[in-house]
Amino acid sequence: MTWRLMRWTMAGVLVLGLVGSALAARTQTGSSRSRSSPGHRSAVAHREHNPLLPIGESLAVPRVGGLPEPPGALGVNAASAILMDGKSGSVLFERYPDAPRSPASVTKILTALVVLEHGQLDDRVVVSRAAAETGGFRLGLRAGQRISLSDLLAAILIRSANDAAVAAAEHVGKSLNGFVALMNATARELGMTNSHFANPHGLDEPFHYTTARDMAILTRVALDHPMFAQLVRTRETRVTIWKPGRRALVPQVRIVLSHNRLLGRLEGADGVKTGYTDSAGRCLVASASRGNQRMIAVLLNDPHRWTDAAALLEYGFGSVREAARVWPEGRAWHFSRVEGWSRLEAKASAEERP
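-> structure tokens emitted (354 positions)
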């Protein structure tokens, strides 16, 4: 009898303990919910979606050229972005501009600048086996072929050819390592303080990184070179590759096409370079000139690089006009109102790799 009474007593104590714990947990949850306002929950959710963005930080762009100031974020999708006035160097918009990121083929802006400053464009380059075996997007060079340094430069900037970048680098730098040393020396001279380069083409490698701000600084300088400025606004050109024949070299003409969709579609678009790798994502350095103004937009890891670049460039010029309607792959871009702010939205097809 005593044993049976003890069992009932212990069971009752256990039940009361469980009920008390449940009530305490419910009370704690309720108080926690009452302390978490809708705004706080929204901010936390936004931070979880983008953990690098501090709670409450605004991406609003400063008032430029009399445009209505956007009431919220401009809507740039890039992991890092910057809009720079190409004439004054003033920064009009930035988003994590100093975060080091993989640059993909926008690396070739620096490659081209080094070639222009240290090479002789009328030199004829003999293609090495290492250059011919370079992966990624290519011109299709074979070991032993000849091609002028000027045509290599065109293939680098217009077609984004990795094999052309290596062939030019080996020729100008006397070796790949020698050229990379020239790249990093040039970057330091320009004040690219958060960049380091390991190759001339931009394929992913350890210790190969840059920032949106550094790329804007570089591009502003590179566009002062007439040859560079001419090539990055060129949509199509021809290069000549000399193939060894039985008795003499045989010329073969190749047509190279630009990957820059803004050329000929956005008013004043005149460059500069696309890029893509799995690590870097879609990258773009875009420029446009109107009158005596030039704007430079850098977007690193941006799935909507074309619309974002066009929107930033338009913002920089202080207007959003019908001339900014773009037709990529025959499908029209259009304007729509978002929170009272005109921005571009794209209906674009799948993007190319470079």
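The CA atoms of residues 182 and 209 lie 16 Å apart.
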